[in-house]
Here is the input.
Amino acid sequence: MIQEYDVLIVGAGHAGCEAANAAAKLGAKVLLVTMNMNTIAQMSCNPAMGGVAKGQIIREIDALGGGSGIVSDLSAIQFRMLNKSKGPAMWSPRTQNDRMRFAEEWRLLLERNPNVDFWQDNVTEIIVENNKIVGVKTGIGVKINAKSVVLTSGTFLNGLIHLGEKQFGGGRAGEKASIGITESLVNLGFEAGRMKTGTPPRVDGRSLDYSKMEEQFGDEVPSKFSYSNTSALSEQRSCYITYTNTSTHDILRTGFDRSPMFNGAIKSTGPRYCPSIEDKINRFAERDRHQIFVEPEGWNTIEIYVNGFSTSLPEEVQFEAMRTIPGFENVKMFRPGYAIEYDYFPPTQLKHTLETKLVENLYFAGQINGTTGYEEAACQGLMAGINAARKVQEKDAFILNRSDAYIGVLIDDLITKGTEEPYRMFTSRAEYRILLRQDNADLRLTPLGHAIGLASDEAMQGVKLKTEQTDEMKRFLRKEGIKPEEANETLAKNNSSPITQQVKLESLLTRPQLGMEHLIEISESLRNYLKEFDSEVVEQAEIQIKYDGYISREQEVANKLNRLDNVVIPDDMDFSKLSSLSAEAVEKLTNIQPSNIGQASRISGVSPSDINVLLIYLGR
Here is the structure.
């Protein structure tokens, strides 16, 4: 009944959708297996994409030819560029999204690709022969043959939902857990663990008093995620901010004895950087209030997401505590928050391609690898989909270095260091964040995406034009002069030293107090010149001139360290035979099996002297 597929993807969340889209665009015959066709690309938690470091990831996905940026733009109801008061390495785009439109746009995008087939069923077993994947078995007894399989199972593997003292199996509220895959993988020799995440209550927006909250508007001139021809928002929906108080905290504490967080029912580790409200008031007992973000779920729905109030306390405690929050006095609750425990597989069991070391052509992506967040899942799905398709097509692996992309940082962190708590991306995790800005994701990655056939010709032409125009504008700024009488009034207003003779516009732009908007104010020739250019080109020229020294130094360091990534360690290397290595290094290197010296140097417990031993052994 069902043919053999090049790439079979288990799960249709953010990772699964990106994997299916990428593999199919590369020409592979793809089957996307999901337990429910009506929940493809469902936003299980907050109705938003991007944010600090996560926004950079979405732009990188888009630059490579993935779908999350396009879908986010098509379903956005608000856009904000976060951290604009800081340097450009910290600027992070974020959209508030229409939950229903987001899922619909992803499904339509996948349905438009003739290489994607769909099957609604529950995968219960992984079929392996001679340490190589050959297919899967499903809950209704169907065997599906596949040359490669990508597991993107989210929180569904043996999922257990906690609500107060109540427990019930499920992968998400209203959906059953997936049973069988974990057992199948453990029988093959994989190591499994448990993690926990949570979600807040959803409430009726008609029952809230927004006059008691702070309105949070979108950007006055909204941008967008995708470098393609999606449109920026012409109208936006506001979010709101309110706060808990001591009364809220007192009521929440009355439920602590029935909280699975505190009574031992939950034994696994939750996300450090997205704690539940009970965890917050327990860990930060000195604080008398915590911020609550009131986020609409879409353009037309009345449903509201109560961001910052993630909880697994009994539903009556959640309800009573919410009623003490300003604006929530008459709140009506649609559904309570809950916690969920699920199986994951420590990602040190993977290669840089996200293929497993134990089973050939089997790939893991998303929360199965111990990550948290839509964006982290989506970029792993993209990379797993690319590599699964390319391996079936007998092409080279596609790997991003730490200096190429946040995606490269995330995957290298996971497979080199592993994680014992849900991994979330931050700008601080990237040592080359001046290189890895959201504004230059297309310049960095579209040529790579285009070379493998994922990014379009149009996208590549756009990058070439942007590069040419940016260089042209930098040349103009280097040769165009400005006189003291034209500049000094503006310089004084902005606490910048006056000039005593004509200087080039470029030299003023390097001053920390000044930006392109100040040069436009003082130079008529620049005002006229800029009429021909897109705002992205103007921004790119300004950043490259202003931060040229920092960018060059960081690139130099990256180039030096990348040389270590080019020193390959043989797959069959027996580290125990190198007597000069420390015992800890032998243990860690044997466990992780790094593919190159660069990766080996980033393993905790492997010292510089151990790296020298490896380099000498490898003849370097």
